[in-house]
Amino acid sequence: MQQYDVVVIGGGPGGYVAAIKAGQLGLKTACVEMRGTLGGTCLNVGCIPSKALLTSSHHFHDAKHHFADHGIQVGEVTMDISKMLDAKAKTVQGLTGGIEHLLKKHKVDYFVGKGSLSGPNGVSVALNAGGSESLETKNIIIATGSEVTPLPPVPVDNAGGKIVDSTGALDISKVPTSMAVIGGGVIGLEMGSVWSRLGSKVTVIEFMDRLCPAMDQELTKKFQTTLKKQGFNFKLKTKVVKSEVNGDSVAITTEPSSGGDQVTENYDVVLVATGRRPYTTGLGLENLGIQTDRLGRIEVDSHFRTAVPSIYAIGDCIDGPMLAHKAEEEGIAAVETIAGFAGHVNYDAIPGVIYTFPEVASVGKTEEELKEANVEYNKGTFPFAANSRARANATGNSEGFVKILADKKTDKILGVHIMGPNAGEMIAEGVLGMEYGASSEDVARTCHAHPTLSEAFKEACMDAYDKPIHF
Ligand code: FAD
């Protein structure tokens, strides 16, 4: 029997980061992962492959539609989909291999197999190669992540390639003529963008009356208009009730969310992107009295401890936004707690990014949330159309704005919402500011290099506490 300080079940961004941190703190650590590669959903079928396709399709779209604006003549632009998929696979392979190297470097034992709880201090591993291992450990961290939530009227068959989920959408081998994306959330809009840029006519079918409902509404409205200009078709307040694969096409029947007449339309490919749910199958939580909530999330206290004090849970399998960086922060905090330090995650400063073009990024409170909580605030905005770097970059690069929400009395930044080029990078300035309790004036008086997109951030802060210069 192997003896450990920490055994982590799951090798995604929550699990492998926790394992590395534990190794760095000198704890004897093992990481159990059943996929056969490390990196979890994020590296294998999530964040990274989707961004690889977003980058490739963006280059294609730029070459086809925008190079000529700069005087660049390239003749007929075509896309070799299999090469694009190869490039994506290479990126994933390189990064997952890199994590295996990092585990070795930090002396973390890596077990390839399915882990389950054999007791408060025991993990049993059914090895993929056959046989099993019993691990004895002082602490266990569950980081088993999430899986696609099925949508009963639209059963996914990734192998068939007609009705796919986000994993199947990463491997479509031919550009569909038309694509229905069921679900107007982050994953649907990102994957829809990939195939739209490559030539698909994409229709987003969303039950609610707007896209990404948790997002700041001013941003959502602008975002939807922009996607529409790019060729997206939206069917909001619409419910999918039936699907039928008929040879080369899929018939999707919808009705208004509030009930009414049904309509059937045919699509080449259908992407189901209606959400994800925690994955805890086969862990044996129930044998130890570890509770899950109504959405299947493992219940933990503020230190990520379950009802069994030696067992912790982090990442997508607990409450909170299903994001890789949130899982990583929790992994580090849980390990620091185990090692006797003060592990902590500030949930008010977790950014969210949509990697479309332009990108959309947010951190902190939305205007709707502040109104709801009766918090008085100042609002500063600055459009990228007035930012010199955005204007110099390329046609279409100056769409969007930065919006800062700051407390009316203290000027402390409470929320940042950006739609624009590189918004996903720029949001880090807002996160850092919020972590350190910055006021909008603090940021406005911080020198920003010229010409940069981040000057728009500074000017939005100027607008929040006084006046911008360039607008
Ligand atoms: P996971 O990454 O799901 O990892 C859990 C791992 O545990 C899995 O590899 C699984 O095989 C393993 N496992 C499960 N049970 C067991 C067991 N019993 N024994 C052994 N191993 C087990 N997030 C972002 O922040 N940015 C993005 O841009 C982004 N893009 C995304 C795009 C797509 C298409 C998808 C699907 C997701 C995206 N996400 C993104 C979400 C992100 O992938 C998840 O939030 C993140 O992976 C969660 O990390 P985790 O470690 O909690 O779980």
TrEMBL record:
Gene3D superfamilies: 3.30.390.30, FAD/NAD(P)-binding domain. Its EC number is 1.8.1.4. The active site is at H450 (proton acceptor). FAD binds at K51, G115, T144, G145, S146, D316, M322, L323, A324, H325. Residues 350-460 form the Pyridine nucleotide-disulphide oxidoreductase dimerisation domain. Binds 1 FAD per subunit. It is an enzyme of class 1 (oxidoreductase). It comes from the Eukaryota. Disulfide bonds join C42-C47. The keyword Ion transport does not apply. It catalyses: N(6)-[(R)-dihydrolipoyl]-L-lysyl-[protein] + NAD(+) = N(6)-[(R)-lipoyl]-L-lysyl-[protein] + NADH + H(+). Its cofactor is FAD. The keyword Oxidoreductase applies. Residues 4-331 form the FAD/NAD(P)-binding domain. One of its GO terms (molecular function) is dihydrolipoyl dehydrogenase (NADH) activity. NAD(+) binds at G183, G184, G185, V186, I187, G188, L189, E190, E206, G275. It holds the Pfam family Pyr_redox_dim. Keywords: Disulfide bond, FAD, Flavoprotein, NAD, Nucleotide-binding, Oxidoreductase, Redox-active center. InterPro entries: Class-I_Pyr_Nuc-Dis_Oxidored, FAD/NAD-bd_sf, FAD/NAD-binding_dom, FAD/NAD-linked_Rdtase_dimer_sf, Lipoamide_DH, Pyr_nuc-diS_OxRdtase, Pyr_nucl-diS_OxRdtase_dimer, Pyr_OxRdtase_I_AS. The active site is a redox-active disulfide bond. Belongs to the class-I pyridine nucleotide-disulfide oxidoreductase family. PANTHER family: DIHYDROLIPOYL DEHYDROGENASE 1, MITOCHONDRIAL, DISULFIDE OXIDOREDUCTASE. This is Dihydrolipoyl dehydrogenase.
